[in-house]
Specification:
87 residues, 8% helix, SH3 type barrels, transmembrane, mainly beta
Length: 87
């Protein structure tokens, strides 16, 4: 199964995506196209508890929200559901 198909199946869920370069992205999948998976990034709160939305990314935009982060599907080297990291 391709990362495109995996991302499509998990649209709307919080995930960790690992790039082949070692960079890790954590966020909710908001859209998937043939080149990118678009994430709404999630960051830790000020005390390390809870998660909120935040950050922008260069000049990239998906739709009208400037905060979505594009991750190239060709760069994806690993994928894990966010819930897999919380007990």
């Amino acid at each position: 199964m391709s990362y495109y198909q995996i991302c499509c199946q998990h649209k709307g869920k919080v995930v960790h995506i690992y790039e082949k370069t070692g960079k890790v992205h954590y966020g909710r999948i908001v859209e998937v196209d043939t080149e990118y998976v678009w994430l709404d990034p999630m960051i830790r709160g000020p005390r390390g508890f809870g998660y909120g939305y935040g950050g922008g990314y260069g000049g990239y935009r998906y739709g009208k929200n400037p905060y979505f982060v594009p991750v190239a599907l060709a760069a994806v080297g690993g994928f894990a559901l966010g819930a897999a990291f919380f007990w």
